[in-house]
Write a structure and sequence with these properties.
6 domains; Beta-Lactamase; 966 residues; single chain; alpha+beta; flat
């Protein structure tokens, strides 16, 4: 029987209504009837509280709140009741997560003024909160929820912050005020605060906390203590204007006596009783000294003004009456100062200007416009007129009000006559120009302003173009060429001559020839250009006709040129075949020398053995072995050229390799070329054959040396470049991170035709006998075989940059690996079963003898098919030794893969004289596989076999159940 519950919750309010009408069965709490009594009690308590509260219950942190909390939710209010707290307050969750977790652990907590970044109304806002969390226990005494009493204190925190900033501003104003300030407390006037101005006034004495009569005894004799006592007694302020104060302390040679404006302002408590005095004032000592100085200098200024004999300086009051008249005005105008003081300024003007009220008009304009300048005819005392150039300004008082006018002018009559003479001269020049047959221009020094002097025929009038002479005069197709010619002439200060098309106002295109010469100033700098433009359209038409007549001749020349280029290409192919012949002859010569050492050494060995003479046998054996080793080295160089060499890749840091080669590079390129390095500090590791990379770098530097016969600079740089898909398409590389090794020279460079053939074997630009054209081909082959690419950038006359892009390699961190046993420490293993696969009978026999000598049981196969038949039997093979390049349908790698399907732990030794890594299917071998390159010695073969079998032996003798660490 279900217990009966009254209406829940019984509290009133909007939040209670939300609780009553919410579908709690859809939440983790379930229907209200199923709620524990402790939860119902907590909800009733919360809903009836006037404080802002909420609680969360259960693992889902189901959220319930009261009416006081509702405004905090903002737009989230309708979805809040019963929602999981983590999703409802996702923005505030980081701030309340730890307190909630503590509450669920049974610990209460309280926090004050906690900043919380919230997004209540669609925009982020900073808020501050004071809240506490308490654990809520279920009916089984377990912590089932958390109870939070919270209050937003954003307004209080902001107000406190504003008040703190205001206090800081007041303190700053007190400290930085130009006034001197101090605060005195109590009837003894103890000094509590002083600002820097007050400290300077009293001589920077230690006064804080001391009565003023003790700290500043001079205030007693000078009467200031009595004034302070009266202010403190009556509560009425004291104001002193330009009063004297003597600190008795001179600082840095300054006078201790001061003239100050000072105010003693009483300060009262809440009861109206005076409890202190605020002292503030202004030290007027500099101002008083300045006033004295001004009075002394005024006379000097008058002397200076009177010494300006070439300038008339006259002052007027606001009514236009003369108040000042200097010696220059006396000499220019003829009146003495005593004759004109108090007279109206229109006495200086001609009759017509006086009748028109010109002087009064000028005063009005000067006052409205802040000043006035110009030229006009004035009259002297004797009635003679003269041409005056000057200005009128407004005189202003201390408050900025207009108090009068000052006029300054010079007698420019002589200059006026000279200017009129110049105008007449220019008119005569204009008449001469009118007779010219070309359009003439005056051009500014920077070619930005052009003025038409004379226009002939249909030439454009640049005055009508507003100065945009370039856009109107020069055809758009010719502007770059004209600009270049102008710039060259402007920089050189030389004459200009250029031909260009011009678009006439009627739309016709005409050809103009523009000439201009510079006009230099006394320092030799261009001041202006004078130019002439002539219409040469008829001449250009004649030239075009002449070009048309010679067109067929040019076509014949082009055909002959193409024929010569074809002959040159055939010659280049012939030279290539000649180079191939030279290379073949050289290889044959070297091989013959090596084979002679081998065959003659073996022949003498056979002869001495037949004679029973064994004392010199070792020497003949070493001769034969040396010849064979040199033949192997030559084979490797040929394979490098064809990208078929066997590489021994290892982790190489490019910057370290380059640094280690600087000495040999310097000796190789000679003293006339300087080497600069720009190497990356770490991270430029690659997986390559180090000797091959060294050889590639040396060849690139030698090529750069040959491109700089007169000397220059060689830059070697290493860096890391992330090649994007777009860049990878340009380089022919997959998108990845590469190490770029660059060699840059300042030599002759290469044009496009040479760049197209630069990687072709036997192609060279060097003279016959100085190169075979194999260097870059070998570098290209090595780089491509290493997974990289070669990029060449070159500009004729500037130099060449060749960059090797190699995949970046991240070397594994050093570990304490198990030492690899050498031949002297390996256990002597014998009696093992070895499958030998070799299609060359002589090599198969030699290898079989070596293996048999070691005590192994050897089973032979001449090709891949025979080997597969043997591997298909139940015979147990401990080791597979196979040639890579077998005759028939199967190669050595395919045989190894088939054998490992039934014998996964069987070690494999590949032997090959060809491209080792390509033949075995990749650059890296699987565990238990090794490769041995022909030719090899019996000792090396024995060492490799022992190492592989020793590894197999350790695996069998020390099995482990754990998987190897990755």
């Amino acid at each position: 029987m279900q217990p009966h519950f009254p209406v829940f919750p019984r509290a009133a309010g909007a939040a209670a209504e939300r609780v009553r009408h919410h579908d709690w069965s859809a939440t983790a709490l379930g229907a209200v009837a199923q709620w524990p009594a402790s939860l119902r009690c907590a909800v009733e308590l919360m809903l009836n509280s006037p404080e802002s509260m909420y609680l969360v219950w259960g693992d889902e942190l189901v959220f319930l709140f009261n009416d006081a909390y509702a405004p905090i939710l903002g737009p989230r209010l309708d979805q809040a009741m019963g929602a999981p707290l983590r999703s409802l307050w996702a923005d505030a969750w980081p701030a309340v997560r730890e307190p909630i977790e503590q509450a669920f652990a049974g610990k209460g907590s309280r926090f004050e003024n906690v900043p919380v970044a919230m997004n209540r109304y669609g925009t982020p806002e900073d808020t501050w909160w004071t809240f506490s969390f308490s654990p809520l226990y279920g009916d089984e005494e377990e912590v089932a929820g958390a109870f939070c009493v919270t209050k937003e204190v954003t307004g209080m925190v902001v107000a406190q912050d504003r008040l703190a900033r205001e206090n800081e501003r007041l303190i700053a104003l007190f400290e930085k005020s130009p006034l001197f300030m101090a605060f005195l407390t109590g009837p003894e006037h103890c000094i509590e605060l002083v600002n820097p101005g007050y400290a300077s006034l009293i001589g920077h004495r230690e006064v804080i906390g001391r009565p003023i009569v003790e700290a500043l005894p001079e205030v007693l004799d000078q009467g200031y203590l009595h004034l302070l006592d009266e202010v403190y007694r009556t509560g009425e302020p004291y104001i002193g204007r330009k009063v004297a104060y003597d600190s008795g302390i001179a600082q840095a040679g300054s006078d201790p006596r001061h003239i100050v404006d000072v105010v003693f302002q009483p300060c009262k408590d809440e009861t109206g009783q005076v409890n202190g005095i605020f002292v503030q004032g202004l030290d007027l000592t500099p101002q008083v000294a300045l006033e004295r100085h001004l009075s002394l200098t005024e006379a000097r200024h008058r002397q200076i003004m009177d010494s300006a004999r070439d300038y008339a300086i006259i002052a007027f009051d606001m009514d236009g009456l003369v108040t000042l008249w200097n010696r220059g005005a006396e000499e220019i105008l003829g009146w003495h100062e005593s004759e004109v003081l108090g007279r109206h300024g229109e006495v200086l003007y001609l009759d017509d200007d006086r009748l028109a009220g010109r002087f009064g008009y000028n005063m009005d304009q000067a006052r409205l416009r802040g000043g006035l300048s110009g030229e006009r005819w004035l009259r002297r005392r004797d009635g003679e007129r003269f041409w005056a150039h000057g200005s009128m300004a407004v005189l202003r008082g201390h408050e900025g009000e207009a108090v009068g006018y000052v006029v300054v002018f010079r007698d420019r009559t002589a200059e006026r006559h000279a200017s009129e003479a110049l105008v007449q001269s220019e008119r005569r020049l204009g008449a001469l120009v009118a007779a010219a047959t070309q359009s003439l221009y005056a051009i500014s020094a920077d070619w930005q302003q052009v003025n038409l002097i004379y226009r002939q025929g249909g030439a454009a009038d640049l005055r009508e173009a507003g100065g945009s002479w370039r856009d109107q005069l020069i055809h758009p197709a010719d502007r770059d060429a004209v600009d270049a010619a102008i710039e060259e002439a402007r920089e050189m200060g030389s004459a200009l001559e250029v031909e260009h098309r011009s678009l006439m106002p009627d739309g016709e295109v005409r050809w103009l020839q523009m000439r201009a010469v510079p006009l230099l100033d006394e320092d030799g700098q261009v001041r202006e250009w004078f130019g002439a433009a002539a219409d040469i359209s008829d001449r250009r038409i004649a030239q075009q006709r002449l070009q048309q007549m010679t067109l067929t001749l040019e076509e014949r020349v082009q055909a002959r040129t193409a024929e010569l280029m074809a002959m040159e290409e055939r010659l280049r192919q012939g030279q290539k075949m000649e180079s191939l012949g030279q290379l073949t002859g050289g290889i044959a010569h070297d091989f013959n020398n090596m084979l002679t050492a081998v065959s003659m050494g073996l022949e003498l060995l056979e002869l001495r053995v037949g004679q029973g003479r064994v004392e010199d046998l070792q020497r003949y054996l070493e001769m034969a072995r040396g010849g064979a080793e040199r033949a192997a080295a030559l084979t490797q160089r040929l394979l490098a050229f064809s990208r078929r060499q066997t590489l021994a890749p290892s982790s190489v840091r490019v910057s370290t390799l380059v640094s280690g080669m600087l000495d040999i590079l310097s000796r190789s390129i000679g003293p006339s070329i300087s080497i600069e390095t720009r190497l990356r500090d770490g991270g430029d590791d690659v997986l390559v054959d180090a000797p091959q990379l060294e050889n590639a770098l040396l060849n690139l530097c030698i090529n750069a040396r040959d491109a700089m016969p007169e000397g220059g600079t060689l830059v070697i740089a290493s860096d890391i470049e992330v090649v994007t898909s777009a860049r990878g398409e340009q380089l022919g590389l997959p998108a990845a991170t590469y190490v770029r090794l660059s060699v840059c020279d300042t030599g002759t460079g290469m044009d496009a035709s040479v760049l197209e053939k630069v990687f072709e074997p036997f192609f060279t630009t060097k003279p016959i006998g100085q190169g075979t054209g194999l260097g870059l081909s070998m570098i290209y082959g090595f780089t491509r075989q290493s997974g990289g690419q070669v990029d060449v950038e070159s500009t004729p006359g500037q130099g060449t940059t060749i960059s090797l892009y190699l995949p970046q390699f991240s070397p594994a961190p050093a570990t304490c690996a198990e030492p690899v046993a050498d031949a002297s420490t390996m256990p002597m293993l014998s009696g093992r079963s070895v499958l030998l696969v070799e299609d060359e009978a002589s090599i198969r026999a030699l290898v079989r003898d070596v293996l048999s000598t070691q005590g192994h049981h050897v089973t032979e196969a001449a090709n891949g098919s025979e080997a597969l038949s043997l591997l298909a039997t139940d015979h147990s093979f401990d080791l597979l030794v196979t040639d890579v390049g077998l005759t028939g349908a199967l190669n050595g790698r395919q045989v190894a893969d088939a054998g490992r399907q039934s014998r996964p732990a069987m070690p494999v030794l590949f032997i090959t004289g060809y491209a080792a890594f390509a033949a075995v299917g990749g650059e890296h071998l699987e565990a238990g596989m090794e490769i041995l390159t022909k030719p090899f010695s019996a000792v090396e073969l024995e060492r490799r076999v022992d190492r592989l079998l020793a590894g197999e032996f350790r695996s069998w003798s020390a099995p482990t159940s754990e998987a190897p660490a990755a």
